[in-house]
Amino acid sequence: MNVIIKLYLLLLGVSLYSCDQAPTHIAQLPHDKPKLTYFPSGPDPAVFDLLPVNGDTLLAVKWHGGLALTTDAGIHWKSLCDQPTKPNFLYIKYLTIDNHHVLWGLDSWPGIHEAPYSRLAYSTNFGKTWTRQEFDTHKFFPYTIYSRPNHALQVVTRNGGIYQLQDRINKNWKFIKSITELNNSVDDTTYNDSYYDGAHFKFLETGELFFRAKSKWKPITKIGFISQLDDVCSCAGNTYLFGYNGAVSPTPYYLLKIKNSQIRDTIILSNKEEQMHLRCDGQGRLWVFNFRGIWKKSKNRLLKVY
Fold first, then answer.
1. Of 65, 74, 161, 304, whose Cβ has the fewest other Cβ atoms within 10 Å?
2. Which residues contact 87 (CB under 8 A, 6 or more apart)?
3. What DSSP assignment string belongs to 92-146?
């Protein structure tokens, strides 16, 4: 009975975190390990984005709202601001951390039957409290986050413009450049080309993979048995990609490690593991996530951690 009471009080303490109070100081990264274990078989395993912060600390953006925090590489997880009926509920799609340890979350929608919107939230105390702003999308339409973690915040607007935030009150944005391939205001910018990781990579249906080197595309490799990709990322001198052959049904899914234009490692997964996304942390570890959870690559296996 005492164990049940302690667990209830711990859950109550997590739910009392406020996400609406104005932040007052720069975040201090957590060092303590969460005591609340979130089992992968829980009610909400779906993850929209994953942010490796530093060391063994990662923040997951939960598909249905809120965040999940681990400080021990996925052994334990603690949920934040994920109760839709509570006033502290937070819904974002993309998450990053800037060079001042400020967390930034973005939620955007281009508008189909509903009106378009773009909403930005930031936290200076590592997700305990959040300040939010909604943009007039006719004037300025941040669509997704462009900057790398631990760098100044940059966003991609819906028409492919890159802007960098110049202040903390989200009023002063400096235009950096335009990237044609990231223009989401048109149906298809370039026929039969697909772009990944902020258009740092380009993939053709013929299996050719390229990396953007300044204004030119540098070939990485050609993979004959893959015609479509879910994601690409660089990690510790390697290039990882997750893809499949769209001409085969049912098709297996492949997680490949490329180095010096050669395939160095292959993991074959069932067709259930679709829409996988890739993230690399500061220790060179690869993390994979989708609407079924989070996995950590360990040699030639994927170990589910959430």
1. 304
2. 20
3. -SEEEE-TTS-EEEEEEE--SSSPPEEEEEEESSTTSS-EEEE--TTT--EEEE-
Cα 109 to Cα 107: distance, rounded to the nearest angstrom: 7
Spell out the domains of the chain, with CATH numbers in brackets.
1-186 (2.110.10), 190-306 (no CATH)
Residue-level pLDDT at 187 = 60
- Enter the pTM of the model: 0.83
CB 112 within 8 A of CB 2: no
Question: What are the tens digits of pLDDT across the range 241-297?
Answer: 999 988 888 888 999 999 999 999 999 987 667 889 999 999 999 999 999 999 999
Given a contact cutoff of 8 angstroms between Cβ atoms, the answer to whether 179 and 171 are in contact is no
Residue 219 pLDDT > 70, yes or no? Answer: yes
Q: Which residue has the tokens 């990662």?
A: 58
